[in-house]
Amino acid sequence: xxxxxxxxxxxxxxxxxxxxxxxxxxxxxxxxxxxxxxxxxxxxxxxxxxxxxxxxxxxxxxxxxxxxxxxxxxxxxxxxxxxxxxxxxxxxxxxxxxxxxxxxxxxxxxxxxxxxxxxxxxxxxxxxxxxxxxxxxxxxxxxxxxxxxxxxxxxxxxxxxxxxxxxxxxxxxxxxxxxxxxxxxxxxxxxxxxxxxxxxxxxxxxxxxxxxxxxxxxxxxxx
Length: 223
Hints:
By secondary structure, the protein is mainly beta. The chain has one domain: Porin. Helices cover 7% and strands 65% of the residues. It has one helix at 2-17, and strands at residues 25-41, 46-48, 52-66, 69-86, 91-94, 99-102, 107-124, 131-151, 156-160, 169-184, 187-198, 210-222. An eight-stranded antiparallel beta barrel has the order 1-3-4-7-8-10-11-12. Strands 5-6 form a two-stranded antiparallel ribbon. A hairpin with a 4-residue loop joins strand 5 (91-94) and strand 6.
């Protein structure tokens, strides 16, 4: 998966910087996405124990290098996390207030706030009536702003995580699709679904790689 994504990213950059490409124009938009996110783990020592609700809100821009193909990017404030179950003892969670030992079969909830910057390729159909269908794929970079945890067995209610517990940043791949309904000219309402999954660790559980996946409902307005 990773080599394919890196090759696609290299292609995006080449297309974006090629000044000989014709039919270039740029569109901007804003969005507010309700979403579900969850932890993923590559070891049996930890497992996902349910999703959490959050929002991803920001702006997007699309640079078209052909009539129906564009490089897409932007920036947003993204709230994601999950519930993580510890399947054995010997691990701790560090907050600014204390250090907590986590028992076997206990679960913690974590939510982080990130600045998220995507880089992707977008494909569109020709307009059918007032409607256009689109698909997109790419990668996202997430830079941590802050993180919180809830630990039921220690009566912890939203304590701030230490910076070494929640990584400063992580990468994920994403893909999705949806529809755009024209409001006249370049303006359009956008509704779609976006799925992303972590490529690098997001949370230091003490062993292995624990990252974050999410599924969001794209609600946007394009200008």
